[in-house]
Amino acid sequence: MTFLGIDIGTSGVKALLIDAAGKPLGDASAPAVEPVRPHPGWSEQNPADWWKATLGAIDKLKEAHPQKLAAVKGIGLSGHMHGATLLGENDDVLRPCILWNDGRSAAECAEMEAALPRLRDIAGNIAMPGFTAPKIAWVRKHEPEIYSRIRKVLLPKAYVRLLLTGEHVEDMSDAAGTLWLDVKRRDWSDELLSVTGLTRDHMPSLVEGSAVSAELKPEYVARWGMTGPVVVAGGAGDNSAAACGIGAIRPGEGFVSLGTSGVLFVSNEKFSPNTEGAVHAFCHSIPDTWHQMGVILSATDSLNWLSRITGKKQAELSGEAAAQFKGPGEAIFLPYLSGERTPHNNANARGSFVGLSQSTDPAQMAQAAMEGVTFAMRDCQRVLADAGTAINRLLAVGGGSKSALWLKMLATNLDMEIALPEDGDFGGALGAARLGLCAATGARPADVMSMPPIKTVISPDTSLSAAYSAQYARYRALYPAIEEARS
Q1: Is residue 238 annotated as part of the catalytic site, yes or no?
Q2: Which of the residues 27, 49, 102, 238 is marked catalytic?
Q3: What is the Cα gyration radius of the chain?
C-alpha cells in the first residue's frame, strides 16, 4: 500500500510516493508555464497549465515506479493558495486564474470592509488583495460579463481535484484564505459571501484536510495502473501542507520558510486572530487545529531580483555576502518588491535600498537584501507575539535555508534556536501524501506527521544582538518615512 502527494505550484507540479511508514519512495516533477503579468501588480496563470503538469508528473512516476504507483490507495493535494479560478457552465474556465501575489484589488478590499464592518471579526483576517474574495469583487466591477457567468469559484488545488474526481471540494486550510470562511466555525459565511454577491452554491463543499473528499475517476485509476478504489484527501494549502510535512501540527510548533515568499508559521490550539498586525489566522489542515502566519511576499525573490540586475547567480551572491560578513551592513533594504502583507498590508509598498555609497558592491547589496528579509520576518514574529502567540520550536525550510549566513541572521534576530532538517523533501508534497495516508487508512495525524531528523541547530549570535536590534529599529523607521515621501 502506497500513498501519493501532489503539490501544485505556480512553477510546476511535484508528485511524491510514500509507503505506509511515511518513507519517500520516489518523486517526479513537471514544469508549468510561468505566470504572466499583463499589467503592473497583476499576476495570472492558465489553470490548464496546472492540469498538464499534474498529468505529466504522475505519468513520469508511472514510468519510473510502476508497481509502487499501482499500489496507491490514497492521494493528497497541496496547492498555492488564494487563486481565483472562475468556472461557468459545464465547469468551463472563464478567465486566467488571478494568483496569490496579484495586487489589483486594493480598492475592493476597502470597499468590502466598509460594506461589512464585521468582516474582520468573522474572517479573522484583514481584507487583503492576495485573498480570493477581493479578486471576485474586482471581476464584478471590471469584468461584469465574466462575473455574470460564474457558477463556481475554486482554488488551484480544488480545480485539479475536480479534474481528478469530478467533485467540487475544498479543505479548511485553503478555504480559510478566501475571506469567505468563518474561520472559527470552519464553515462558509453567508455574510462574507454576500459582500461579493455570491452564495454557498458558488462554493465547493468543505472537508478536513485528512478526511476523504472524493474518489479518483476510473479513467485515471486505469491510466496509472492502480487497482482502486483510490481516495483523495481534502489536502491543504501549501503552507499548511508544509507544516504536515515537517510535523508542525501541535500548538507552538512552527517553521520559517525562505522560499519565493517568506512565511513564519505556528500551529495553534484555538483560533487566535490579530488583524491589526496583518497576521493570517487560518484553519490548519488538521481537525480542531488552527494556525497563524506572518507572510512577506519577496523572500528569496529579493535575491532573484538582485540576481537579474547584477548578472550574478543567487548562490553566488549569498556566498559572496557570507565571505565578507562582519555584522550588520551599512545599507538597509526594504523587501517590498511586490508590496507587503505582514505587518503593513500594503499592496502598493515598494522596495528600497538606503545607505548606499560609492563602495557598495553586489555582495554588500546581497547582505542587505538578506537582512531586509530577516527584519521582515522579525516584524512577523513581533505581531504574532502581539496576538499572544509563543513559538516553542522553529524549523527552517525553503531554498533560502541552504544559506548558513541567512539562518544565523534569523536565529539572532528572532532570538531563538532554529533547527535545520536533514537533507530531504519536507515540503508540500510530503505533507499532502501524509494527508492522503490518513484519509485512506484512518490513521491519526499525530501518529503520522512526525518531525524529521535534525541535521543542525543554529543558535543566536549574541555578540551581534545589540547591533542587529539597532539596525532593526532603523529599518522599522524607514517604511513610514518612505511611504510619506511617496504619497
Answers
A1: yes
A2: 238
A3: 22
